[in-house]
Design brief:
Elements (H helix, E strand, L loop, with lengths): L11 E4 L5 E6 L4 E2 L6 E2 L4 E8 L4 E8 L14 E4 L12 E7 L2 H4 L2 E9 L6 E10 L13 E4 L6 E5 L7 E4 L1
Antiparallel strand pairs: 1-2, 2-5, 3-4, 5-6, 7-8, 8-9, 9-10, 11-12, 12-13
């Protein structure tokens, strides 16, 4: 996962409103591709930790790598968990996570949306599944869409910044 000394795990951190999930980004991780052997330099990853009420500690739930095998994506640069609904507890049926990869497409940038739901066994809520890819409405190389992101707690509003050297920057709101 992030067994190299350049991964920078913890470069970005976020926590769910109910405090059950902590997400740590490692945007400089040399991620192993889907073939199991090719390393993609600075592709990045996020590690998701889950609160264990019996041990009073956070334990690793899973690791999410970029959905595409490409170098220099910086996946995990920024992220946010959103929890729609009146109850923000672990069993809340829907949670969303936004994860940026500002290095994607020669620094054009992308933001990925994940939904948390029922696991393969049908009874546990332990699966984050990518459900949407968000690109800038004004795309272009070097803009680094996803440099920072913020979202409302219910996930209805997403703000994503872009930065480009020699430009003032931009914020897009969805």
């Amino acid at each position: 996962d992030n067994d190299d000394d350049t991964s920078k795990l913890g470069y970005s951190l976020s926590m769910s409103t109910d405090e059950n999930f902590v997400v740590a980004g490692a945007p400089y991780t040399n991620t192993i591709g889907a073939d199991g052997s090719t390393r993609f330099s600075d592709a990045g990853l996020v590690k998701i930790y889950l609160w264990e009420p019996t041990t009073f500690k956070y334990g690793i739930l899973n690791t999410i790598t970029p959905p595409t095998d490409v170098a220099s994506q910086n996946f995990g640069w920024a992220h946010k968990i959103c929890e729609p609904g009146a109850n923000s507890i672990r069993s809340t049926p829907v949670k969303y996570m936004f994860v940026s990869a500002p290095g994607t497409g020669t620094d054009a940038g992308t933001v990925y949306m994940y939904e948390w739901g029922i696991g393969l066994d049908g009874s546990t809520y332990d699966t984050w599944t990518q459900c949407l890819t968000i690109a800038s409405s004004d795309p272009g190389e070097g803009k680094r869409f996803g440099h920072r992101l913020e979202a409302s707690d219910d996930g209805n509003i997403l703000a994503v910044s872009s930065t480009a050297s020699g430009q003032a920057g931009k914020v897009e709101i969805y």
